[in-house]
Structure formats: C-alpha cells, structure tokens
Amino acid sequence: MNKKVYVLGGYGLIGSACIHRLVSAGFDVTGVGRSLEKGRRSNDQVKWHAVDIGTASAAEWKERLRDADIIVNAAGALQDGARDDLNAIHVNSIENITQALAGTAVTFIQVSAAGASEQASTEFMRSKARGDNVLMNSQLNWHVLRPTLVISRDAYGGTALLRAAAAFPLVNIQIFPDAQIQTVSIDDLTRAITKAATGLLPQNTIADITEEESQGFDELKMEFRSWLGLKPWCVTLPAPSWSIKLIGLIADMFGQLGWRSPLRTTALETLKSGICGNAQTWKMTGNQNCRSMKETMASMPATIQERWFAKLYLGLPLAITVLAIFWLASGIIGIVSFPTAQDVLTKRGISDDLAQLLILSGIIADITLGAAVLVRKLSRLACIGMITISAAYIIASLLTAPDLWLDPLGPMIKVIPSIVLTVFTISILEER
Predict the structure, then answer these.
(1) Structural domains of the chain, count
(2) Structural domain of residue 404, as residue ranges?
(3) With 90 as the cut, is the pLDDT of residue 157 above it?
(4) What is the mean pLDDT of the chain?
(5) What is this structure's pTM?
(6) HEC states along the chain?
(7) Of 265, 282, 313, which one is at a domain's C-terminal end?
(8) I want to staple 79 with a disulfide (CB 3.0 to 4.6 A). Which of 19, 266, 350, 359 is the partner?
C-alpha cells in the first residue's frame, strides 16, 4: 500500500510543486489548505481537506491526520496581516500537530527558511525558527529543510516581484545593491522533500537547500531580464532609502486590508539582510549540490506567458489604485456639486425628490465601491458592482439625457474606458 502524505499549504508555490512530485513518486497525496475550491483548481487529481492551519486544534488535526504516514508542512506566511498570524501558522500549528500525532510513527517534513533564527531581524524568520524548535523537540520522526529563494516556473510573492522588477521598462530601479542572494530550483527542493519522504535522508536531517554561490540582487534581476528576452535597461537609478521605507509602509497598510504584497517591510528587510544558506549542510547528507541559478533558469526557458505576467504584475496595484481614486472622487464630486447635478436632472423632467434620491444613491454607491475595492476579500465584488453601476449610468443617460453623449468633454464616453479597466482588474485578481 502506498504511503499517505498530507501536504499542508498544498496549493502554495512550494506545496503545489510538492504534490506533483510526490504523486509522480507513487505516494497517496492529500492536499490541505483553507479553500477546497483553490485546492481543486490547483490539482484535481488528489484529495483535499479544507483546514485553517493557523486555528485548527490538536483534536481537529488528530481527526484529519488519523491515517497519515508523512506530513509535509509547506504552509507559511510572510507577515502578520488581515489574513495571516505568523505565530499561529508557523508555531501553534506545529504544536497542535505534534501533540495530535504524539506516539505515532508519522514522519514530519518541515519546509522552513534559510536563515531562520530566534535572533533574526524579522518575525518571519523568528517564528519559523520557533516552529522548527517545536518540531525538533517532539517525539516524531522529522526533517527540517531550509530553502533559500525558491525559483519556480510558477510565480508568487518574491518570485513574482523579481519577474516584475526585471521587466520594469527602461529604468533599473536599484535597491539594496550589496545584498547577496542564493537561490534554489523548485525541482531541487521537491527532490529533497521526496527523498525525505522515501526515507533516503538520515533521520532528523537539518539542511539548507541552496545553490553554492550567491549573487547581488541587481545581478539576479539582470539574469531574469535576460531570461525574459528583454533588452538591457537604458539607465540605472538608485532608490533613496526613504522611498523604500515608504513603499514598505504603504504595502503594510494594504496588508491590513488583506493584500499580501511582496513589498511589505518583512520582505524588504529580508532582502536587505540577504538570503543565504550553507550548501554544505545538504552535501553532508550524501547528496549532490543543488543547481546554480543560471542552471535553474536554463532549465525553464521563458515563454510569452512569462513576459506577459512580468509586465502586467505591477498593473494590478496600479489598476486598484486608479479605480479607488476614480470612484471615491466621483462620489466626493457628487457631494460638492449636488445642486448642479440636481439641476441637470430636473431640467430633463425629473422631479426634485426623485433627482435628490438618484444623486444621493449614486454618491453612496460610488464611495462604497471606491472603498470596497481596496479591501482584498471585497475587491472582486466591488469590481462587479462598478461594472453594474457603470452600465446603469450608461442606460439611464441614454433614456433621460442622451444629449450628454454629445458634450464636448465627453463625460459619458469616459465611463466606457473605466468599465474596460475594471474588467481587466477582475481578470488578474486571482493570486494563485
């Protein structure tokens, strides 16, 4: 009978790759994540359990994992926010799982992070280290694998931002030029995880999974730009330190609204400190070196999809910002110009009371949608609302004030591009 493996964080960047590798190796795999829909969309060939990893109790884990032979923990979060609690995800979950599985022969494979330490400069690294320590002090069979920056065919978080930075038009915005980065291919990482699952690693292995050499962040960006098939930048401009901090603070603010921006202060601090590991810890287990960054890139040639993604990645925050400003401004202008708007309607045969009701309804709708699109879990619904309201505006104007379509400033014509922008935004809202 095939061994049963449960992959926590199964539709994430690392988790989804783990599932594919483990299935190919003959394991009976079950994915675990918050959403069954996202899991099945990621891979409909395996079973899925919907579990909030950060809040599930020991009793719930005992029930969920009752037939498990192996646990692969690929779940993680970069920073505390509206959707994430680092201590809950990185520490409490492992406490509850090890308690639930106490006395069993289950093997727990922990995907941690190179540089994880309780003395690290970020809570991400500190919480990862605390979780590792909980596991290592348990009675389970365990392995702790600590990758550096994972390079994958898929893109999410830091790897997505790296593609976007490499595709930035004309200008290389230089940040942290002295930061040293080591990478690891997702194939090398999933191969290491599969070896641990098949019992081919020494018991209780702790190893950094990484290439041997490091490169500067600028060098890494240029390698990605070359990989994308784009021409070299025309000019390089160093980013002032204050602007980097400001971007981090803005990204943190949006993190409280549910957006998992890879530009939050934790990511920037991690990048500034460098992302490096000790490749010798993996070699000491009797395994070969992981491939270099150049070898990794050569193994996954870029296609038009990668170029489109890289160029459009920064389009989402720009589109969300423009839509929020546009709709909030429309509502505010409606308040300021209430008498003028009322006059426009009453001149076309609409009663004062109905005109006031229509204008007030429009103001409330505009401001509500402009604010809602900034909240991650409401953004899709807000976009649908924007399209619906815009279509209603067009129909209403054609019925009551068709002359507005001939206005030299084209106030109604401008609604159509806003609908197109909203449709574009919906189409790229999906994270993974």
Answers:
(1) 2
(2) 317-427
(3) no
(4) 90
(5) 0.86
(6) CCCEEEEECCCCHHHHHHHHHHHHCCCEEEEEECCHHHHHHHCCCCEEEECCCCCCCHHHHHHHCCCCCEEEECCCCCCCCCCCCHHHHHHHHHHHHHHHCCCCCCEEEEECCCCCCCCCCCHHHHHHHHHHHHHHCCCCEEEEEEECEEECCCCCCHHHHHHHHHCCCCEEEECCCCCEECEEEHHHHHHHHHHHHCCCCCCCCEEEECCCCCEEHHHHHHHHHHHCCCCCCCEEEECCHHHHHHHHHHHHHHHCCCCCCCCCHHHHHHHHHCECCCCHHHHCCCCCCCCCHHHHHHCCCCCHHHHHHHHHCCHHHHHHHHHHHHHHHHHHHHHHCHHHHHHHHHCCCCCHHHHHHHHHHHHHHHHHHHHHCCCHHHHHHHHHHHHHHHHHHHHHHHHHCHHHHHCCCCCCCCHHHHHHHHHHHHHCCCCC
(7) 313
(8) 266
